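Researcher: I'd like a candidate sequence for this fold, 216 residues long. If you have to choose between options at a position, lean toward the conservative one.
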């Protein structure tokens, strides 16, 4: 989606990113890196249609020898529409020479996460004046093993029906809820084995997929 926003506000976020000091090996650090401001220069310059037309004249005068004009630019990936369900997929592999190697280190993630520092200031479904976009964790997928083989297990929170979430999914309506995790019991599921577990057990898992439901 091409936007002609004021350059001064185009890279503004819903909450102040400068106040963030994300700890390494945390989901906040991953999101911060994914949404950081990048400068495109040299071989990464952006093809500018406006500059090209200004350089070559009107389109009907542009012939085959037309020279495209590339310019320095800034790029930033931000959330423009806060989803009812937030799914975070962690890249758990890295290149080791010509091979792929699994990344096994623990990535910290919270029960409640605020997406506002990673949302555009004009996020479409956030009420005006709100500077928080809160989500509560309800599911985790974990992978054990290597890149060639392994086993998937899941942690799932059993909780009461979230009518607020239903409103978001079906009608797009929003309302403020408590900035606390949705109450419920966590279970660990491995094939046909299901057993209750503590929150601390869930938060210490090697997450591969994280599922959050919107609170605010």
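Model: Candidate sequence:
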């Amino acid at each position: 989606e091409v936007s002609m926003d004021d350059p001064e506000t185009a890279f503004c976020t819903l909450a102040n990113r400068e106040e963030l000091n994300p700890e390494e090996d945390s989901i906040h650090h991953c999101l911060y890196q994914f949404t950081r401001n990048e400068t495109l220069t040299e071989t990464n310059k952006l093809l500018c249609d406006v500059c090209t037309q200004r350089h070559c004249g009107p389109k009907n005068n542009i012939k085959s020898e037309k020279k495209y004009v590339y310019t320095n630019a800034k790029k930033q990936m931000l959330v423009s529409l806060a989803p009812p369900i937030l799914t975070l997929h962690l890249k758990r592999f890295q290149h080791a020479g010509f091979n792929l190697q699994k990344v096994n280190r623990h990535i910290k993630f919270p029960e409640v996460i605020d997406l506002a520092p990673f949302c555009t200031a004009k996020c479409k479904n956030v009420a005006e004046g709100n500077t928080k976009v809160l989500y509560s964790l309800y599911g985790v997928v974990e992978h054990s093993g290597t890149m060639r083989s392994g086993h998937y297990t899941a942690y799932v929170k059993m909780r009461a029906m979230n009518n607020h979430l239903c409103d978001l999914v079906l009608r797009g309506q929003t309302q403020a809820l408590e900035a606390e995790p949705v109450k419920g019991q966590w279970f660990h599921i491995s094939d046909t084995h299901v057993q209750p577990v503590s929150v601390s057990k869930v938060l210490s898992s090697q997450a591969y997929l994280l599922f959050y439901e919107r609170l605010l």
